[in-house]
UniProtKB/TrEMBL annotation:
One of its GO terms (molecular function) is DNA binding. Signal peptide: none annotated. One of its GO terms (cellular component) is protein-DNA complex. Belongs to the LysR transcriptional regulatory family. Residues 1-61 form the HTH lysR-type domain. Transmembrane segments: none annotated. It comes from marine metagenome. This is HTH lysR-type domain-containing protein.
Length: 299
DNA sequence: CAGAACGTGTCAAGGCAGGA
DNA sequence: TCCTGCCTTGACACGTTCTG
């Protein structure tokens, strides 16, 4: 092994700032020293990791991006090993960046983090919410180590572990003519205006439900906000289909919504923890996984 | 233990590209 | 064309490790 952890740390910093001089200032070393370290790393690997743009900073090569993912993971393990050495026999500690699909976050993260804090008080979690594409990209770039996601159309470079499944429901205002029904078929909604939760992957999932039922939904509004979907439904702008049910049927503006089971056969959505395939989790991420399993599987 | 070798840092100078 | 910003290279310093 020719490279050093210091070189990896330098590379991660340069990639982060896109500029050798800026990275050097943050690392408290001189710019030539940093430039030399990166050059030595590239030389030992035999692969260019950065593209130098004279007077315009640097960018990461495709090979460099793949290498960075592994480098960040390795640095995470190295950090953990250092902490382990300092506190042999002590509990899980350090920092963990957890990604989460934006609509899942408010439903589960507050309680998950509370449980995690109770089990591992020395573990400090940083959150990175986003759409599924963003969450996946962060995992593949090594910016997050583990994420809570819906298991739909995920990148094949990610490994997932299913935690639970959630069934889709029709959402209508409490004064809607279907609100008193115990179930509803999607065909009964064919002429009703729909409010679509318009997030990548989610929109395709909702459309597939209607496609399988042979129904073409009349989309009245699209929004990327889960709560705006509920708000619009609560004020009678249309119905929606959602998988997650908040404990309160009140919307932000005081409207009231009703969740009704769907009569048609539907595909449940799997909630899963995702991580880059082939990368060994740190003990911190393992601790988060264990808390998720207890939370979802054991109740 | 002393000198050589090595690794890693700084400073200074030079080259390149973009912008005024 | 000149200025500015930024990267690379060369010379050198200093601390650590290796070797006889």
């Amino acid at each position: 092994m020719q490279y050093t952890l210091k070189q990896l740390r330098y590379l991660v910093a340069v990639a982060q700032y896109g500029n050798v001089s800026v990275a050097a200032r943050h690392l408290f070393i001189s710019q030539p020293a940093l430039s030399t370290a990166i050059a030595q790393l590239e030389s030992s690997l035999g692969v260019p990791l950065l593209i130098r743009h004279h007077a315009r900073g640097v960018s990461v090569t495709p090979a460099g991006r793949k290498f960075l993912t592994r480098a960040r993971s390795l640095l995470g393990h190295a950090n953990e090993l250092e902490l382990l050495g300092r506190e042999l026999g002590d509990s899980v500690r350090g920092e963990l960046i957890v990604g989460c699909f934006v609509t899942l976050a408010p439903f589960f993260l507050p309680r998950l983090l509370k449980e995690l804090q109770r089990s591992h008080p020395q573990l400090h979690v940083h959150l990175a919410e986003g759409a599924l594409d963003q969450v996946q990209a962060a995992l593949l770039a090594g910016e997050t180590e583990i994420s809570l996601v819906y298991d739909i159309d995920l990148d094949r470079q990610l490994a997932t572990e299913e935690l639970t499944r959630v069934r889709p429901h029709v959402l209508v205002a409490s004064n809607h003519h279907l609100a008193t029904h115990s179930t509803v078929s999607l065909s009964a909604l064919a002429t009703e205006p729909m409010i679509l939760l318009d997030l990548p992957h989610s929109r395709d999932y909702f459309r597939s439900l209607f496609f399988n039922a042979g129904v073409e939904p009349v989309i009245r509004h699209r929004t990327q906000s889960f709560e705006l979907v509920r708000g619009l439904v609560g004020q009678g702008h249309g119905y929606s289909v959602l998988n997650l049910q908040p404990r309160s049927n009140r919307t932000y503006d005081g409207g009231r919504v009703i969740y009704i089971p769907i009569e048609d056969p539907t595909t449940d959505l799997a909630i899963a923890i995702a991580r880059p395939r082939g990368l060994q989790l740190t003990h911190r991420a393992e601790a988060f996984s264990a808390v998720c399993r207890r939370f979802f599987v054991d109740g």
